Structure formats: C-alpha cells, structure tokens
C-alpha cells in the first residue's frame, strides 16, 4: 500500500479523459490559465500602486518668472 506509480496516474488520466472528454478538459485548462494570468497581472498592479504610495513623486515648486523679479539696472 505505497504511493501511486506512474501507471496508476496514467490510468486515472485516461478515466478522467473518458468521463469529461478532451474538449471540456481543454476548456478547463484554458480557464485556469487565464485565471492565473489575471491573478499575476493583478499582483503586479498592486505592487505598482503600493510602490507609488510609498514613494510619492517630488513636488515641483513654482518659481517666479525671471522678468518680473529682475532688478532695474543700477548705474
């Protein structure tokens, strides 16, 4: 009563393919793959947003224009 060998897994795979059909299994595989891809994308977007919250962009201070504050010529 040990672990399952490769032959046991092959028999289980054949039975599952017969019960559900290959088309349904392919659809389930595509759905699982799309869910994993969406999950990874969401995790990356979450990391990007948390990084933006942790490091706010530097603020730009408005400087007066040079023509307004230019002193008159002193002779």
Describe this structure in words.
The structure is a single chain. The protein has 75 residues and is mostly helical. The protein has a domain at 22-53. The protein contains two helices and no strands. The radius of gyration is 32 Å and the shape is rod-shaped. 0% of the residues are buried.
- Number of alpha- plus pi-helical segments: 2
Q: Outline the biggest β-sheet.
A: none
The backbone outline, from C-alpha atoms, is rod-shaped
Name the helix and strand elements from N-terminus to C-terminus, one letter apiece: HH
Q: Percent of residues in helical segments?
A: 55-70%
Distance between the first and last residues' Cα: 106 Å
The fraction of residues in strands falls at under 5%
Mean pLDDT: 79
Tally of DSSP β-strands:
0
| SSE class | mainly alpha
Radius of gyration: 32 Å
User: Which residues form runs of ≥5 with pLDDT under 50?
Assistant: none
What structural keywords apply?
75 residues; mainly alpha; 2 helices; 64% helix; 0% strand
Brief sketch in words of this structure:
With 75 residues, this protein is mainly α. It is built from 2 helices and no strands. The protein has a domain at 22-53.
